[in-house]
Amino acid sequence: MASSDDVRVPRWLKPMNRAMVAVSRIGVSLPMALLTVPGRKSGKPRTTPVTPFEYQGAEYVLGGIPGADWVKNVQAADTAELKLGKRRRTVRLVEIPAADSAPVLREFPRLVPTGVPMMIKSGVVTSDDPEEFAALAGRCVLFRIDDA
């Protein structure tokens, strides 16, 4: 596993996220959800694509890049809006303690295989090995999605 210093946000990620948000807003259905949360400094709505996944009957989302702005915004907010297709709902994202997140993270490569290549390209992990993902506990933030 790479150290936090080795993690690099791919140059294409922010422009790609903006493009996905724009495409979704004109009505094109995406395989991911859009999470909108107030900016922690500006208070303005900030939207980012996320990939919710289910594990043992609960819904989760992983902050796959340590220190990501959207994660910090979620940590500062009471609620957020999650939009999947035409369905919008107000949610509360509950941060899962590191000690409890490893079993969920271990299943991430199987449950969200489309998220693995970005995490490899970013230097967060080196492979799709479930144990490498479990070792992200405490480094990458895992949120449980609850209805608000």
Mean of all residue-level pLDDT scores: 88
Approximately what portion of the residues adopt beta-strand conformation? 25-35%
Q: What is the share of helical residues?
A: 25-40%
Overall morphology? globular
Helix and strand pattern: HEEEEHEEHHHE
CATH topology: Pnp Oxidase, Chain A
CATH class: Mainly Beta
- Summarize the main sheet: 7 strands, antiparallel
**Global structural class:** alpha+beta
What's the number of extended β-strand segments? 7
CATH architecture: Roll
Kindly provide the radius of gyration, computed on alpha-carbon positions and rounded to a whole number of angstroms.
15 Å
**How many structural domains can be distinguished in the coordinates?**
1
Strand order of the largest sheet: 2-1-5-6-7-4-3
| Uncertain stretches | 1-5
Distance between the termini: 35 Å
Supply the number of helical segments. 5
Describe the model:
The protein has helices spanning 13-25, 69-76, 98-111, 116-121, 130-134, and strands spanning 33-38, 45-50, 53-55, 58-63, 80-84, 87-95, 141-147. With 148 residues, the chain is an alpha+beta fold. It has one domain: Electron Transport, Fmn-binding Protein, Chain A (Pnp Oxidase, Chain A, Roll), CATH 2.30.110. It has a seven-stranded antiparallel sheet with strand order 2-1-5-6-7-4-3.
Could you list some keywords that capture this structure?
single chain; 148 residues; alpha+beta; seven-stranded antiparallel beta sheet; 5 helices; 7 strands; 28% strand
